[in-house]
Every structure is written in structure tokens, then in C-alpha cells.
Design a protein that fits this description.
- By secondary structure, the protein is mainly α.
- It has a domain of 68 residues.
- The chain is built from two helices and four strands.
- The strands form two sheets. It has a two-stranded antiparallel sheet with strand order 1-2. The chain has a two-stranded antiparallel ribbon with strand order 3-4.
- A hairpin with a 6-residue loop joins strand 1 and strand 2.
- The longest helix is centred in the C-terminal third of the chain and has 77 residues.
- It is rod-shaped and about 145 Å long.
- The N and C termini lie far apart (141 Å).
């Protein structure tokens, strides 16, 4: 059973639960809930009146939050400086990478030119060697029969 009473600490209205009797098997009443003998362990916290929502203006909220605001502002500024330095280093890294790519392309062009020169020189030498062999076999005094 619910019973409305006045709270002596806050002056507000409170609801109190009283024991409920239920019919037992033998027709006797059985107490299934007894709240009058035990005190709630939370009664200390509920003894104080609730703070009305309109009283936040009385608390110096700005003064309490000022260190947190400064810390957050300082953190954002440090993050901005970090990102600026990271962007500067990325620019340097990209410039070095572009220089390395240009140098690699220059070396590749030089390698191709040198390889072309080597191939031409090899063809020249092999042609000279073949011509020298042909001249050695066609020396004057050698018979056409193949006898020396």
C-alpha cells in the first residue's frame, strides 16, 4: 500500500510504502514487504533538498572552467604548431623525393646512352674480328685447294 506523507527535511511530499498483507495458505496474513523496520542506506543522500535548475547562475561556472578552457586552447595551439611543422617537413620530403626521381631519370638516360655506345663498339669489334679471320684465310700464297 502506498501512503503519501510530508518529508520533514525538505518539506515536500514523499511516498511511503507500507507492509502489504497477502492471504496465506492457512488463511493467515503473510507480510511480504516490510519497510518500516529497515532504513535505506541511501537516506543520507536523499535527506538534502534537490538543487533547483535555475541556481547555476549563482555558481562561478566561468571561473571554475577557466583552467580547463586555457588547457584546451593551449592544446589546440600546440596541435596547430605540430601540424604546421609536419606540413613543412612533408614539403621538404617531397622536394627531396622529386630531386631523387629527377636524378634517377638522369642516370637512366646516361645508362641508356652508355649502353648504346657499348653495343656499337661491340658490333664494331666483332665485325673487325670477323674481317681479320676472313683475311687470314684468304692470305696470298694459300692455294684454293686448301693445302698450305
Amino acid at each position: 500500500m502506498l501512503q503519501r506523507t510530508k518529508n520533514p527535511l525538505t518539506g515536500g511530499e514523499a511516498v511511503r510504502i507500507t507492509p502489504v498483507e497477502a492471504a496465506g495458505a492457512a488463511g493467515q496474513g503473510v507480510n511480504i514487504m516490510d519497510t518500516t523496520q529497515q532504513q535505506s542506506p541511501f537516506s543520507f543522500f536523499t535527506a538534502f533538498p534537490a538543487m533547483p535548475l535555475g541556481t547555476f547562475g549563482a555558481v562561478p561556472f566561468g571561473a571554475v572552467m577557466e583552467p580547463w578552457r586555457r588547457a584546451m586552447t593551449d592544446g589546440v595551439e600546440r596541435m596547430r604548431a605540430f601540424y604546421g611543422e609536419a606540413a613543412r617537413l612533408e614539403g621538404l620530403s617531397q622536394a627531396q623525393a622529386m630531386t631523387a626521381v629527377d636524378e634517377s631519370a638522369r642516370l637512366a638516360r646516361e645508362f641508356l646512352a652508355y649502353q648504346t655506345q657499348l653495343q656499337a663498339a661491340w658490333r664494331q669489334r666483332s665485325l673487325e674480328a670477323c674481317k681479320g679471320m676472313a683475311d687470314a684465310f684468304a692470305a696470298p700464297g694459300a692455294a684454293a685447294t686448301g693445302t698450305p
